[in-house]
Design a protein that fits this description.
By secondary structure, the protein is mostly helical. Helices cover 64% and strands 0% of the residues.
Length: 67
Amino acid sequence: MNKPKRKSRGLWNWLLIVPAVGLAFPAVYSRATPGLFGFPFFYWYQIAWILLSAVFTAIVYFATEGK
């Protein structure tokens, strides 16, 4: 019976921490400038992380799917 390689899967899972760290310190991004399409930095920064989180999740999923 083939067991999944836990070490390689664990390394990919660390990529899921990146969005949490990017949003963990609101003092860094709680400002109005620079704006984007009329949205203050605070809002578009968080929206960008929603999209990036989906990308990171997809990368981890496809990298560990067959393992």
